[in-house]
Each structure stands twice: as structure tokens, then as C-alpha cells.
Design goal:
Blueprint: H1 10-26, H2 34-47, H3 51-58, H4 72-86, H5 94-106, H6 111-125, H7 131-139
């Protein structure tokens, strides 16, 4: 059973599943560095992860893979959820960008596709889109 199955709130379950997948990505190369730990702490706060949930996710025997959705729309929805949380403080740093790319690739995007969707998403979430893109988004 996935850790997210233990919780009833749909939004909290999604946040916990995102956090667990991110923690797995951070630990994929073995030990979690102090920079990665700091980033995980920030994500835990953004995702509203409790201390006991954090400890459970971080156990060595717990590895929570990204369960890639089958459709492009569902993959974009997962990225959208993560972007909403990352931008909750109106800022994105280099570590978060690197993690977003790993996450996007884990969801099934190619490296090139991941770069494009992340670039566009950052522009949208940071409010730095040009008028043509703004117009397109409003009309479609």
C-alpha cells in the first residue's frame, strides 16, 4: 500500500505522494546531501507534511516511485500541482528547477519536452508571459 493511501484528504494525499516521489528522487544517488535535505525540508513545509509523515517517507526501506500517468493531460496535471506548491512562496530556485526536470522526466516527458514544459510553466506561474501567449491562454 502506498503511503498516500493512508490519508483521506485528496489534496493532502496528492501532496504527500508528490513529496514521497521527490524524496525518492533526492535519494536516488545514495545519501541525501545537506542541500537536498534542506530542499526536502522546504518542500515538506510547502506540502504541509507532518513530522511523522516526513519520517515515514524518509525511511530507507520506503521508496515511492513516480507513478506516471498514461495521458499527457494527466502528466501536465501532476506538474501543475507541483508548480502550484513550488510557487506558493512566489519564488523558484535552482534546486527546485533541477528537481522539476527530474520529476517531469519521471512522469514520462523526454528531456527536451521537460525543458519546454517547465520553461513555459515558469513563465506562466511567475507572470512573465507575453501578450500573445496571454491571449492564446484566454481564448483556448
Amino acid at each position: 500500500m502506498a503511503i498516500a493511501d493512508l490519508y483521506t484528504s485528496g489534496e493532502h494525499r496528492r501532496n504527500l505522494a508528490h513529496f514521497a516521489a521527490i524524496a525518492t528522487l533526492a535519494s536516488i544517488d545514495g545519501e541525501i546531501s545537506s542541500e537536498e535535505r534542506s530542499m526536502l525540508d522546504r518542500f515538506a513545509a510547502k506540502f504541509d507534511i507532518t513530522e511523522s509523515e516526513y519520517k515515514e517517507v524518509m525511511k530507507k526501506e520506503n521508496k515511492y516511485p513516480i507513478d506516471p500517468p498514461h495521458t499527457s493531460e494527466n502528466r501536465l496535471e501532476r506538474l501543475y500541482d507541483l508548480f502550484r506548491i513550488i510557487f506558493s512562496d512566489h519564488h523558484i530556485d535552482d534546486e527546485e528547477m533541477l528537481l522539476l526536470k527530474k520529476y517531469a522526466i519521471g512522469l514520462g516527458f523526454s528531456g527536451e519536452q521537460a525543458d519546454k514544459v517547465i520553461e513555459k510553466s515558469v513563465a506562466i506561474f511567475s507572470g512573465k508571459i507575453d501578450f500573445d501567449d496571454y491571449l492564446y491562454l484566454l481564448k483556448h
